[in-house]
Fold this sequence. Notes:
The structure holds three protein chains of three kinds. Chain A is an alpha/beta fold.
Amino acid sequence: MTPESQTGRPDRAALSASAPAIELKGISKAFGPVQANKDISISVKRGSIHGIIGENGAGKSTLMSILYGFYKADTGQILIGGQETEIPDSQAAIAAGIGMVFQHFKLVENFTVLENVILGAEDGAMLQPSIAKARELLTQLAQEYELNVDPDALIENLSVGHQQRVEILKALYRQADILILDEPTGVLTPAEADHLFRILRGLRDEGKTIVLITHKLREIMDVTDTVSVMRRGEMVATVNTDETSPEELAELMVGRKVLLRVDKAPAQPGDSVLEIADLRVTDEKGVDRVKGVSLNVRAGEILGIAGVAGNGQSELMQVLGGMRTGSGTIRVNGAPIDLSGARANGQARRELGIAHVPEDRQREGLIMEYFAWENVAFGYHHQEKYQRNRWLMDNRALRADTEAKMEKFDIRPPLPWTQAKSFSGGNQQKIVVAREMESDPDLLLVGQPTRGVDIGAIEFIHQQIVALRDQGKAILLVSVELDEIMSLSDRIAVMFDGQIMGERSPTETNEKELGLLMAGMTGDA
Amino acid sequence: MDVLPKWADVILIPLINLLLAFIISALVILAIGEDPVFALKTMIQGSLMSTYGWGYTLYYATNFMFTGLAVAVAFHARLFNIGGEGQATLGGLGVALICLSIPWPHWTIAIIAAMIGAAAFGAIWAAVPAYLQARRGSHIVITTIMFNYIAFSVLNYMLVNVLRPPGSQDPASARFPEGTNLPTFQEFFAQFGITAFRGAPVNVSFLLAVAACILVWLLIWRTRLGYEIRAFGHSESAAVYAGISPFRITVIAMIISGALAGMMAINNVMGEAERLVLNSVEGAGFIGIAVALMGRSHPFGVFLAALLFGFLFQGGAELGLWTNIPVQLIIVIQALVILFTGALDNMVRMPLERLFLRFRRVG
Amino acid sequence: MDFLTVLQILDSTIRLATPLLFACLAGLFSERAGIFDIGLEGKMLAAAFFAGAIAYTSGSVWLGMLAAIAASVILSLIHGLASITFRGNQLISGVAINFLAAGLTVLIAQDWFRQGGRTPSLSGDARFNNIQLPFAETLEPVPVIGPIYAELISGHSFLVYVGLLSVPFTWWLLFRTRFGLRLRAVGENPAAVDTAGISVIRLRYIAVLICGILCGLAGAYLSTGLQAGFVKDMSAGRGFIALAALIFAKWRPWYALYATLLFGLLQAIAIRFQNVDIGTFTVPVQFMEALPYILTVVILAGFVGKAIPPRAGGEPYVKER
C-alpha cells in the first residue's frame, strides 16, 4: 500500500501533471446474462471536458456507476490521477476526488440547501459548526462559478436548474476534482443548459476534469473537448470533438447510417377534432399547473407541444386522457367532454375515440408484471370483443389479438406469454403504441413517444405516427426533445409555466426561437 | 429477469420456508424441555390418523380457507387486510341474528340467509376501513386492527345486553333453532351406514369453502373485475391511466375480502357451536394472513395452506391435551410461517437464484 | 367533578401515556429512518414478559428492565434483518413479530411459572417504585399548586420521568446533531445518503436498534411500573395506538408527547368511568372500552390533516443509477 492511499486521498498535486485524470483499463460488467460493459478502456485528460455518448442502454450509466462505486466491475482497472484505485463504494469515490451529478437528483427534498450540501461531509457530531462553514464556502463558490442558490431554501421550492446547482455544489464542497454529469440537460431550458455549460467551462479552466454523459449530439459538439462513443456495451471510438461531426457520431452510435429527419408529405388538415378553450389544472398540492390553455387540433395534422419538462404539458395530457380533473372547455368532434365529473376517466375518454400513449410507459402505460397479452387490451378490456360472456373475459381472443399486433408492429420477442418487464424499452413502447393506434381513434395523444427507446424503434414509431396522420387522424404530440417536435409536427405550440407562449410552423421557425419561447421569452426579445 | 423457474418459485421456496419455520419451532419445543419428535407424532396421531382427527382438521381448514381467501383477495389489490378477525366476529353476529330471527324450516334455506347475513356483516366491517383509506387516507392496516378491537366490544355488548337469554350468566346467545343446524360429515356418512367423523364438527361448510376457492380463482383470473383488481394492485398510476377507479377497486376488493372472512361464521358459529359465544373466531382471522402468504395468494395455494394449518391447529390442540406444550405453540408456528414466507422470502430466494444461475451456466 | 378527581385522572393519564410515549418515540426513530414498524406491539409484549419474569426471578427490577430491552432488541434485529438486509415487506414482518411475541411469551411463561401464561405478582424491589420528588410533602398543603406538584408531578416511577425526558432528548438528537440529520435523510431519500458515502444499512440498523430499546422500556414499564407482573396479551393494542399517535404527531417528538397524553387521557377516562350516565341513557362499558380504538380511527380519518410521512417509508432501499 502506498503512503498516499493510506491517507485515503492521493496527493494529487504531487502527481505528474501529465497523468490522465481518469484511466479505465479493460472494464467489463455483466448483469446475469446481459453484458452491460465489454472490455472498456478510456483515458480522460486532466482539465478537459470529455463527452460520452451512446444510445439508451449502450452502457454509459453502468460505466459511470462503476466509477462511482455503485457497481463493482467484473474485471478491469481504474486509475485516478495515474494511480490504481479501488472504488468499492461511494465513500471511496468521494475520497478519490470524484463527484457525480445524477440524472435523477439525489437530494433530500424537505432539507435546506445547506443541509443537503453538508450531508455526509459534516465536520463533527454537532450540526451548527458544519452549517456555518458550509454557508461561508457556498458564498465563495457562488461568486467564483456563477453558482448562486439561496443556502436556506428548501430543495422542494427550488427550480430544477437550481437543484442541479446544489448537486454541483455538493461535489465541490467535497473537493471533487473530477465531476461526472449524467444527462444533465434533460430537464433544463436551452438557456439554463447554456448557463450550465458556462459553469462547466469555468470549472475546467480551474483544472477540474468533467465527464459529460449524454445522448444529445448538439451538447457534445458545443461543450466537450474529446468524446467517446459507446454502442451495446462497447467503446467504439474516442475522438477529438473538433475533428468529428454530428453525422459521424450518430453513425458510430447506431452502427449504420441514420436518417435524422422524418420523411413526410405536407399535412392535409380537415375538420377540427380537438378544441381546448381556457383549460386550467391545479395539482394535488394546490399549485396551478395549466393556466388557461387554448389549442385546437384538426384531423390529419400533428400538433407538437414543445417545452421543458414540468411546464404543464404532462398535466395537459393527463386531463385530456382522463387521468386528472381540470376546468375550462374541451370539445372532441364538437361535443364538450366531462372534465371533472363521473365521466372524467380514461375509460370514458377511450369510448369517445381518444387514444393515449402516456409519457411514462412503465408507471402508466403498462402493468409490468402482466403478460403481453394482458397488456394488449389494458384500458380497452371492457370492449365486447374481449368478453366471452357476461361474466368472463375471453383470454383466447386477447392472445390472438396480441399475436396480430406483435406481427404488425414487429414486437420482439413475439411471444404473448412474456411479461412486459422482460421486453426492451423499445418493444415495451411498441406494445403501447400498437394498442393505442389499433384502437382506431379519432384523436391520438402521444407523450414522450421515444423516451428511453433505441434508434431503430424511434424510426419505426415516428413512421407509425405519420402514417396515422395520413389516415386523417388528429394527433397531439408532447415531447421534451426539440428535434422530435421539429421533425414530426405540422404545427408547433410552445408551453411555458402552464401557458402557450406561441405557435409556430416548423418550416418558419428555428431551434433558437423555440428555445427562447421555452424559456418564457416571447418573440420580441 | 426471472431467474427461477416457476416451479421453484411456487413450490420449492414455500417448502423451504415452511421447513425453516418447523425447524425453529422444534428448537422452541426443545427449549421448553419437550421432545419435538414426540410432539410431531402426537400431532399427526391426533389430526390425521383417525376420521375424528380429520374431522377437526377439515373443520379448522374450512375456517382458514375463508379467512385465507379474504386476505388473498385484498393482497391482489395490494391491500393488507389484518381485520379478518373482526370481520369474522361480525360475520358471526350476522349469522346469529339471522338464525335466531325466525324458526327456520330447513337448513338449506337457513344457510342461504345466514350466508348473506355473514357476508354482509363482514363486508360492512371491511368497507368502512376501505372507505377511510380511499377517501381520507387513513392507513388500512391500522384501521383494520382497530376494527378488530372494536368488533370485540360490539360482540361483547350484543351478547351481554341483547342476545343473552334471560337468566343466563354466560355471555352467549341462545341455542339456534333446530332448523338451522347444518349436517355434519358424520351425519352424511351415517346415511350410508358408515361410521366416520364421529363427534367431529366438520360439516357442509367445508364444501362451501372449496366452492369459494374455485369462485375466487375465477374472479381473480377470469373476470374483468379480477383483471382490474390485479392491475390496481400492481400499479395504481397505471390503473388510473386505464380508467380504473382506485376508490372503486379499494372498496370492492375489501368488501369481497370482508364478506369472505365473515362467511367463516357459517362454519364455526352455525355449523359447530350452534350459538354465538365470545371469541368464537379463535384467531382464525389472523391465521388467514399466514395461509394467504404461504399459498402465494392463489386460491389453490390457499386451499393447501389451509389444510396444513388445519392440521397444525388440530395437532396443537392435541399437544395441549397430551403434553405440557401450550396451544400457543401454534401462534409461534404461524408467526414463523408469516415471517419466512412473507418477510424473509429473499433470505431463501437470493441464494437459490445464485444456485440456479450457476446451474444454468454449467448446463 | 371535584379538583381531586381531575387530578387523579390526570395522574393516571401520565401513567397510561408513558408506555404509549416510549412506543411512539420508538416508532418515530424507526419511521424517520424509513422503516415502518407495526411490530411495536409485539416488542412491547415480549419486553413486558421478560421484565416481569426476570424481575421476579432475580428480585431486581433493573435486571428485569435490561432483559426487557434485550428481548425487544432481538425482535428489532429480526425486523431489521427482514426489512433492511433481505428487503422484505415491512408490514408483514411486523405482523409476524407481533404473533411471535404473543405466542412465545405464553409458551415460555407456562414453561417457567405454570400459571396459565402469566408471571407471579411482583412486589418490593422487583417493581419500579414511585419516586417522591423533593418537597412534595412540604408543598402538599399549599392550595392548587401543592396537590398538583405532589399528586401529578411527583410520585411517579423512574421510567415515567425517563419517558418525559426522552422527548427533548429526541428532539435535540434529531434536529441538532449529525446523526439526526443523517437519520432524517435516510427516511426521506436513502439514495442521497448512499451517494454521500454513508451506509444506508448501518443507519437503518441503528434506528431499528433505538426503536428496540425504547420498546423495551415501554414493555418494562407495563409489567413492572404500571402493573405488578405480566399477564398474557397485556399490551392490548398499545403498540398500534402508539402508531396512530405517531401519525397524529406528524413524526415530531413534542407532538408525540401531546398525542400520547391525549390517548392516555382517553384510557384514564375509560377506566375511571365504567358506565357513564347521560340522563336516561347509559353509555355501556363496552363502548368505553372501545373508545380509545374508535378515537384512533376517527383521528386517523379526520384530524390528521396533511400528515406527510417520511417519503422513503416502507420501501426497502435498492441501489439505482
